[in-house]
């Protein structure tokens, strides 16, 4: 249970204990805002792009420049699930928002400031590609997916709009347990550039077993989010991102279940991605759960046969394959990010 600290100058609590904050800061998270429910972390691919060159699958699939991408969350200590494959620290997540709420404008500006602060020291490294570092000083994109469940942040529509006002594109990744927030994003004209829902369970039983929901009716809510996704056609780009585990959700029964869920959501894109044996999941799952790229490709082909989606691309270092709904989605997958 998190000890609630009182942030300086406010009367509302923060949700992380001193020890948790210390651990997160040591791991490279920079906390944003007085209530410390938001954070940025310079991702592996951003560092790599600046130091030795290279880029992540978001660059290959959609044209996002890795050195100009900010990894951010407004809900670091909160999630409605404790997924067995989560690489963060699900044991510390609370499903209830127990902190004070920082304003959307403040945390959007704070996130960019924190990213630039974290990149400050790079020019001291002789390996740095200065042209790439200079590009990193003008972030173009925010991935709202670093940790926790972002739809729990009550001011999410304002936050997305704020990033867009700042000239940034946004990817928002949700576990789908808050359809009412997806609805609000649509109603308040605050849809992200690309809306992601995660896809790891293929029926209610595997949902309970793999995602360990922390509140009732999450499967029903997830299905409602998939239906909402289908209604967003033409309003935002939509993606289902799969987390594939060799022995847990790559069976023939899983393909049947996934096919039904993909048909329900009709996303523009499906990313079939390997589970990564890192972080907290190390304790629960075996390394053997990580499929190879060849196994992911084989699985994607079977999924394509069932759904009619087109296997389009892959990024070996991230162990992921991209499927597109049709040729139009294939043609239009590259984003213009400034
Ligand atoms: S929904 Fe995401 S953040 Fe929450 S426990 Fe699962 S993987 Fe971790």
Tags for this model:
alpha/beta; binds iron/sulfur cluster
| Rg | 19 Å
Percent of residues in beta strands: 15-25%
CATH class: Alpha Beta
How many β strands by DSSP?
A: 10
Q: What is bound: which ligands? A: iron/sulfur cluster
Give, in order, the helices and strands.
Answer: HEEHHEHHEHEHEHHEHEHHEEH
Second CATH tier, the architecture: Alpha-Beta Barrel
Poorly predicted tracts of residues: 1-6
| Fraction of helical residues | 25-40%
CATH topology: the name is TIM Barrel
User: Which structural category do the helix and sheet elements fall into?
Assistant: alpha/beta
> What count of helical segments does DSSP give?
13
Q: Name the average pLDDT.
A: 93
- Compute the number of structural domains: 1
How would you sum up this structure, described in words?
The protein is an alpha/beta fold and 338 residues long. The chain has a single domain (30-331), classed as TIM Barrel (Alpha-Beta Barrel), CATH 3.20.20. It is 37% helix and 15% strand. The protein has 13 helices and ten strands. It has helices at residues 18-26, 44-51, 57-62, 104-119, 130-136, 156-165, 179-187, 204-211, 218-231, 252-265, 281-284, 293-307, 327-331, and strands at residues 30-32, 38-40, 69-73, 141-144, 169-174, 194-199, 237-244, 269-274, 310-315, 320-324. A ten-stranded mixed sheet has the order 1-2-3-4-5-6-7-8-10-9, with helices on both faces. Helix 10 links the parallel strand 7 (237-244) and strand 8. The chain is globular, with a radius of gyration of 19 Å. The termini are far apart. Mean pLDDT is 93; it is low at 1-6. Iron/sulfur cluster binds at residues 79, 81-83, 86, 88, 90, 147-149, 175. Residues 79, 81-83, 86, 88, 90, 147-149, 175 line the site of iron/sulfur cluster.
